[in-house]
Amino acid sequence: MRKKIVAGNWKMNTTVPEGVELAQQVNAAVAAASDIKCDVIIGVPFTHLTAVKAVIDIDKVGLAAQNCADHTSGAYTGEVAAPMVASTGANYVILGHSERRGYYNETPAMLKEKVDLALASGLKVIFCCGESLDEREQGIFKQVIGDELRESLFHLDAQQMANIVIAYEPIWAIGTGKTATSDQAQEVHAFIRGMLAQQYGAQVADDTTILYGGSCKPSNAPELFAKPDIDGGLIGGASLKADSFMGIVTAF
Ligand code: 13P
């Protein structure tokens, strides 16, 4: 059975002390709750990884970086390599977020490198895909999503796919308050699972966790998570307060 996951993506928010406090609150809430039916992960800025790792129980709250470099070491000023992320004790990295693709010109080829280096460092990857509003309106969203998966993930073998979580994040729903309807999300999730089945067979398709992201909050999470191919969420704004994040964690 594939894992259900609710992962927070804090993006570029919180100072280190604020982030440590938020992580402590999430950790305490997860430890206190007896009815959590999913894995919980927090995706924090690079600067926070070590300090946050020190205050969470990593067996209960997973820790993700939000990016890693497409090289392992060397003269790449300002970059943070996958082995560095892994050395903090983090166990996940978010790759391919539309904000990285859009604002920092991350290409499918770069993301393929990042995926390989992350896996080689023992990190699990939360790989994001999703279409723009224009691409949805043109009716080419499945082609766009298909290309993103094919170009950066489908060189992996079936064993490596066990360490990949896919996050479908329609760009038009991110931070806009405009959620994809549960039917729109389910349609894409089923499409992605179908692609996985074609490429890797039914077992890998069944075992791969596919998250929805984009204005997910406690009020809409239950309906989204009730869909057969939606295995949880990647949460931006609502992950910045422990109570709203926990409201989504407990939505299953
Ligand atoms: P919001 O939940 O703020 O829309 O962000 C979603 C997202 O981009 C998570 O990676």
- How much of the sequence lies in strands comes to 15-25%
Silhouette? globular
CATH architecture: Alpha-Beta Barrel
Helical stretch count? Answer: 12
Output mean pLDDT.
Answer: 97
How many separate domains make up the residues?
1
Q: In the CATH hierarchy, what is the class?
A: Alpha Beta
Q: Write down the Rg.
A: 17 Å
So, the CATH homologous superfamily? Aldolase class I
Structural features, described:
By secondary structure, the chain is α/β, with parallel strands linked by helices. The protein has one domain (5-249): TIM Barrel (Alpha-Beta Barrel), CATH 3.20.20. It has twelve helices and eight strands. The protein has helices at residues 16-32, 49-53, 82-87, 98-103, 108-120, 133-137, 141-152, 158-161, 182-200, 202-207, 221-225, 242-249; strands at 5-9, 39-43, 61-65, 92-95, 124-129, 164-168, 210-213, 232-235. 1,3-dihydroxyacetonephosphate binds next to β8. Residues 9, 97, 169, 174-175, 213-216, 234-238 line the site of 1,3-dihydroxyacetonephosphate.
Secondary structure: elements and pairs:
Elements: E1 5-9, H1 16-32, E2 39-43, H2 49-53, E3 61-65, H3 82-87, E4 92-95, H4 98-103, H5 108-120, E5 124-129, H6 133-137, H7 141-152, H8 158-161, E6 164-168, H9 182-200, H10 202-207, E7 210-213, H11 221-225, E8 232-235, H12 242-249
Parallel strand pairs: 1-2, 1-8, 2-3, 3-4, 4-5, 5-6, 6-7, 7-8
Helix pairs in contact: 1-12
Bound molecules: 1,3-dihydroxyacetonephosphate.
